[in-house]
Amino acid sequence: MTAPSTLLIVYHSHTGGTLQMVHALQQGAQQAAEALQVRLLHASDAHTEDVLQADAYVFATPENLAAISGLLKDFFDRTYYGALDRIQGRPYATLICAGSDGSNAARQIARIATGWRLQAVAEPLIVCTHAQTPEAIAAAKQIAEADLQACRDLGASLAAGLEMGIF
């Protein structure tokens, strides 16, 4: 019998929006494949060994100044070269909690994943909160149920694909 697959979710969240998305994705993944090991790590707690031990990845971040968060960038800075040429071909997906459009943050993650030679298994899932004032940007976020369901669905798809050996 083979060991269960491991899905590593590396996230950072300032105002709770990204964390809500991550928890929904985690729930969808765990419900779809009971044998799947889902590891949820804050970006500051994730290390190269965590990346190497995982079979698939979700990178989740708020959009900060049209970019990924500094802590997610720090995670990539700390783990990139230690994992380079050791994880190619593994699947990944991206979650972004954006205030405007999130597309640049998605491109940043895609460029890093391209360097690692990871395979995107879904388009980046971007939830736009439309927070544009200093008060709205700093406020705790509440992600709509439809967006949380999209996160659960992505988690279920990732889990099923891993369980069936599709990726």
Topology:
Blueprint: E1 6-11, H1 17-32, E2 37-42, H2 48-53, E3 56-62, H3 70-83, E4 91-98, H4 103-116, E5 119-120, E6 125-128, H5 134-138, H6 145-164
Parallel strand pairs: 1-2, 1-3, 3-4, 4-5, 4-6
Please describe what this structure looks like.
The protein is an alpha/beta fold and 167 residues long. It is 45% helix and 20% strand. It has six helices and six strands; from the N terminus they run βαβαβαβαββαα. It has helices at 17-32, 48-53, 70-83, 103-116, 134-138, 145-164; strands at residues 6-11, 37-42, 56-62, 91-98, 119-120, 125-128. Strands 1, 2, 3, 4, 5 and 6 form a six-stranded parallel sheet that branches. Helix 1 (17-32) crosses helix 6 (145-164). The model has no long low-confidence stretch (mean pLDDT 96).
Overall mean pLDDT: 96
- How far is it from the N-terminal to the C-terminal residue, by CA? 18 Å
- Number of helices, where a helix is a run of at least 4 consecutive DSSP H or I residues: 6
**Element string (H = helix, E = strand):** EHEHEHEHEEHH
Radius of gyration: 15 Å
- Unreliable stretches, pLDDT < 50, 5 or more residues? none
Helix content: 40-55%
